[in-house]
Each structure stands twice: as C-alpha cells, then as structure tokens.
UniProtKB/TrEMBL annotation:
<keyword id="KW-0732">Signal</keyword>
<feature type="domain" description="Lysozyme inhibitor LprI-like N-terminal">
    <location>
        <begin position="37"/>
        <end position="135"/>
    </location>
</feature>
<dbReference type="InterPro" id="IPR009739">
    <property type="entry name" value="LprI-like_N"/>
</dbReference>
<protein>
    <submittedName>
        <fullName>DUF1311 domain-containing protein</fullName>
    </submittedName>
</protein>
<feature type="signal peptide">
    <location>
        <begin position="1"/>
        <end position="20"/>
    </location>
</feature>
<dbReference type="Pfam" id="PF07007">
    <property type="entry name" value="LprI"/>
</dbReference>
C-alpha cells in the first residue's frame, strides 16, 4: 500500500522516479556478433570477458536489491519474506541459467572446437545481464526509510 501511495504522490507532483531504463540487454546473438571480428579462439576470449562483465553487473544488482530490501519502508515481516524470496529466486536463477545455457551449447549441434563453448558463454552473459536488469526494475521504486 505504501508503494502505491508513493508512486501516486510522485505522479501527482509531476515527478518521475530516478530510475531510467537501462540500455537494451545484449542478446546471445549481439554478443557473438560483437566478438565475431576475432578468430574462434579470440572470440571465445572476448566472450569470457563479456561473461566476467555480466557476472560483475549481476553481483552489483543482487547487492543493490538486497540493500534496497534492507532499507525498505515496510513492515519487518514483509521485508524478511521478500529477502527469503530473493535468496530463493537467486538460487533458482543459477539453476535455470546452467540448464538453459547447456541447451544453448547443445543447439550448436556437431560444431567442434570452441564453437559450443561460444554458444554457452553468450547465453550466460545475456542471462546475467537480463537478471541484473530484472532485479533493478523490481526494487528501484521501493520506498526507503
């Protein structure tokens, strides 16, 4: 209820939340294309760097979401419940990402060398960025104490 009142107040005052939509989340395809100027080994290294970047973005988004929940102006029982659900969601996402990216690699079919790993890495980077964006959108407008 507090969140609804907070948003209504912002809109009544003609204000908008500080959150601005992030740049489009990179897709597997755009990530592979961005690294496509390299040889297959170089492409793999480029995608490893993209995965590392995406992992950092995801960790930061998880920390920010956790911090926003800790400072959320809501009854403690709801704050604690949301924290438990965030932890469960984070764990479920890790399982989903592993399984989905295994599928992405399998869709490379009979490819050899680094090709299957390239598909898996692009998938992991995309999903990490997607999850980071999702967490930010879910928590950015929580009213803080």
């Amino acid at each position: 209820m507090r969140a609804i009142k907070s948003v209504a107040l912002w809109l009544a005052l003609g204000l908008t939340p500080a959150y601005a939509a992030p740049a489009a989340t990179p897709t597997e395809r755009t990530l592979r294309e961005a690294c496509g100027a390299y040889s297959q080994a170089g492409m793999r290294e480029c995608l490893v760097a993209k995965v590392d970047e995406s992992r950092k973005a995801l960790k930061a988004a998880e920390a920010e979401a956790s911090g926003r929940l800790a400072g959320w102006d809501e009854d403690l029982k709801y704050v604690n419940f949301a924290k438990v659900r965030l932890a469960a969601s984070t764990k479920a996402f890790a399982t989903y990402r592993k399984d989905q990216c295994s599928l992405a690699a399998a869709l490379g079919g009979g490819a050899i060398g680094n090709a299957l790993e390239i598909w898996r890495l692009a998938c992991e980077a995309e999903l990490n960025h997607w999850r980071a964006d999702q967490l930010q959108r879910a928590t950015v407008d929580l009213p803080l104490k």
